[in-house]
């Protein structure tokens, strides 16, 4: 081994020995900061309407169904998260879609507004009642098409009247879908106030 190589090996071993003995205090690991939970203030309702025992299929009259261009309706699958009853309304014009109406007596709009999730949300008003509209996180409110829109109206603390639109074909813009759910839930809310 040449003197130059031997010197290089000695220097390298010395550096490694010093590096191995050197203690670097990088501090204690800490969890990532938790996301700040924001709380959205929900405006007051003009009155409370209890949704317990409400039949969703009775919340749209024949005249309202005609305006919404519903050609068929009937009980839908129960809401899986709460379990609340639902009613499905099939529409062909201006496109094929399904409206699902559910009186949620165990979940209010505050759960949507104050929690993160895979939906975009905006606070609106429906005939004086606070409400929230929901769309898929991957969509924008002005997209030429969307995957769904839901309008949930706060009828009492921890309760919401939910109208969801699921398109069968991609002929409606996101704005059209949200306008239709708004129109449909307004009609259902008007009927609800006559029976409660």
Strand share of the residues? 25-35%
Using the coordinates above, name the CATH class.
Alpha Beta
Task: Identify low-pLDDT runs.
Answer: 1-37
Query: Could you name the CATH topology?
Result: Protein Transport Mog1p, Chain A
Structural class assignment: alpha+beta
Largest sheet: 7 strands, antiparallel
Count of separate DSSP helical elements = 4
Helical fraction equals 25-40%
Keywords: Signal
Protein name: Secreted protein
Organism: Kutzneria albida DSM 43870
Signal peptide: 1-19
Structure, explained:
It is a single chain. The protein has 4 helices and 7 strands. The chain is an alpha+beta fold and 196 residues long. The protein has one domain: Protein Transport Mog1p, Chain A. The chain has a 7-stranded antiparallel beta sheet with strand order 1-2-3-7-6-5-4. A hairpin with a 5-residue loop joins strand 2 and strand 3. 31% of the residues are buried.
Break the fold down into its secondary structure elements and pairings.
Blueprint: H1 3-21, H2 62-68, E1 70-76, E2 86-91, E3 97-104, H3 109-113, E4 119-126, E5 129-136, E6 149-156, E7 159-167, H4 174-195
Antiparallel strand pairs: 1-2, 2-3, 3-7, 4-5, 5-6, 6-7
Summarize the structure in short.
The protein contains four helices and seven strands. The chain is α+β, with helices and mostly antiparallel strands and 196 residues long. Residues 1-37 have low confidence and may be disordered.
Labels describing this entry:
signal; DUF3558; Protein Transport Mog1p, Chain A; seven-stranded antiparallel β-sheet; 196 residues; alpha+beta
